[in-house]
Amino acid sequence: MGSAPATAQEMRRAQRADGPAAVLGIGTANPPTCLAQDDYPDYYFRVTNSEHLTDLKGKLTRICNKSGIKQRYIHLNEDLLAANPDFADRTRPSLDARVDIASAAVPELAAAAAAKAIAEWGRPATDITHLVFSTYSGARAPSADRRLASLLGLRPTVSRTILNLHGCYGGGRSLQLAKELAENNRGARVLVACSEITLIAFYGPEGGCADNILGQALFGDGAGAVIVGADPVAPVERPLFEMAFASQTTIPETEDAISMQINKGGMEYHISNQVPRLLGCNVERCLVDAFRALGVSAAWNDLFWAIHPGGRAILDHIEGVLGLDDSKLAASRHVLSEFGNMSGTTVIFVLDELRRRRAAMAMQGGEAPEWGVMMAFGPGITIETMVLHAPSNLDLKGN
Ligand SMILES: CCCCCCCCCCCCCCCCCC(=O)SCCNC(=O)CCNC(=O)[C@H](O)C(C)(C)COP(=O)(O)OP(=O)(O)OC[C@H]1O[C@@H](n2cnc3c(N)ncnc32)[C@H](O)[C@@H]1OP(=O)(O)O
Question: Quick check: 173 and 248 in contact, CB under 8 A?
Fold first, then answer.
């Protein structure tokens, strides 16, 4: 073997990266149709021919008013819904048609986000070695990761993984997987792509189904992409956030609090009204454990924050239990306001917004915190926690 490492341990060590995984590029995309939150109750009850359900419309209006959301983007616009009237009725067998549309639209939206992330990264798409794709709209094989690889012209040797139905923690899980892949495979460059399109779960209002009314008020469509790699090659590659530590925690006895299930009429879901409280009671323990594992003690207000804005009340609870200053969750609140809850994709939008805000602050001579936290939540209830470090050569461009 000439000068090759002599032992299996040495071989293993040679395969590992030296430094921590880092975010090297971020991109986001939304479908073109944008709906104002103030107009949504009128729109939804009109396009589903449900104007007579005035109580439910009142409920949707009350939730919209308290949602902290200004607008959302959707793929299923009025024309597409008119061409697929069964989508408005959960009892009709419409899954085939939904999957047909989603199978094309989900990877295409992901490709739009990925193209931006790759452009910022600065290297050719053929240098990507791994792809981690997350969506709740996948119900077919070969799936969206395979199609995205074709759309981007990735190499046939790219290692693909698809995560399905992780819901709102899909972005956090994908980034954790990307960290493991990048740190354990020297030279690996991982494309993380999350793409969520609500048409799989859109249907008309029904009495007794508050979950649907809540979903109609909160969710929107979007895709986010991140390039992750260790040991960046200067000057082309510049780390935006280094991934210092990552963990996943499941809150005991909360299996039924958030659920999703694919049925013949589309995806049904349940979101307990206890979710904000349950998260509020558990996030601090995850944070304490994460910083203890790093051997660091942190004052919460000295950190930057990228929290998944699952709903306004979730952000309020977390802000309250951690005693965070008003400005600390500004990136999460901004993304919630401009895009709604795009499930697993949302946390990537928050990272993008955060780096933009940090760059603006640096341009004005201000100093942003060096250390921060990303958290995402979903069915389980699952909490994804990642401690981030922002190097001083933070990207000043934004995207
Ligand atoms: C544009 C396109 C749209 C298309 C949409 C199609 C849908 C697609 C869906 C895709 C599904 C994917 C789902 C799974 C992903 C899960 C991951 C998550 O993030 S998990 C999601 C994580 N997100 C969350 O868990 C949401 C967190 N919650 C919140 O942010 C707030 O509670 C709020 C904004 C909903 C209301 O503000 P707040 O200050 O609390 O105001 P108030 O106290 O005054 O109550 C007002 C009304 O709200 C009611 N209500 C409250 N909760 C629920 C509920 N769970 N349930 C039902 N209703 C609920 C309450 O009963 C009251 O009704 P009423 O008495 O007036 O009749």
Answer: yes
